[in-house]
Amino acid sequence: MNSSNLLAGILMTVLAGVVFSTMDTIGKQLTTVLPVLEIVWGRYFFQTLLMTGYLYRTSGTRFLKTKRPVLQFVRGGMLLAATLLMYFGLVHVPLADATSVMFFSPIIITILSVIFLKEKVGIHRIAAVVAGFCGVMLIVRPGASGTDPYLLLPLAAALVNALYMLLTRQLAGSDEAPATQFNTTAVGTVILTFLVIPVWVTPSLPTFGLMVLIGFVGSIGHFSLVSAFRHAPASLLSPFLYSQVLASTALSVLYFGDHLRLTTVLGTAVLIGSGLYIWWRENRKARVKAGLTGDL
Prior knowledge:
Blueprint: H1 3-30, H2 36-59, H3 69-90, H4 95-102, H5 105-116, H6 123-140, H7 152-171, H8 177-195, H9 205-231, H10 234-237, H11 243-254, H12 262-289
């Protein structure tokens, strides 16, 4: 990997973060006229259509075959659950707050890795986990005057998203990359097609256009991220995903007119710092194992 590839990977990762925040902005706007289930269906359905066309062109019908169908189904279901929790939360809470809380996922992944994968963590990563938890508490402010209980929805989404990421780890490195890409949204599309029928509201033409757009934008974000990881390792690019938090904060203030509380700003800063520290320790640990640096 040369410097130009790394720079390309960084730029594509930042683009993905901005695109995902734009997608959530469209989704939050649509919650004023459509049920959440219908909005998420639109995102999943049209993204799956685009993904199907792309995968068929690049891999034939190989993306329809998987040796681990149960794991693929559970993983897709986890992502769907996280998306629904996030969008139900966006109906009631500012975009900036919801996005910041969602980025509690790296902290939760560290905790779940200890519980389920029996990974060992040192005092430094424990401190980062505690700091990240404090960051979330600053944003959610349990028991404080004006606390919004709906912030628990993106917090639950962060937990489910962490489980989704752990399942993604289990599928990484296998020969099922096309199937994994397809099932990321295909599973949710099938489930939502049945769930959306009782609550369906016929959208106006402009609203339907936004439903198509949200799927298209989601696809752009996905392809940007995939392209980024082709240029540089995910371990190097992960910190730049925090561009989504920054973009969501800007859109929350400029587009929706939300006011940022000082506790939200401080909590977000602590969360990002904790996530970056865990990322740094993970990479340092990997370098130690490879004999590229000193002791931890």
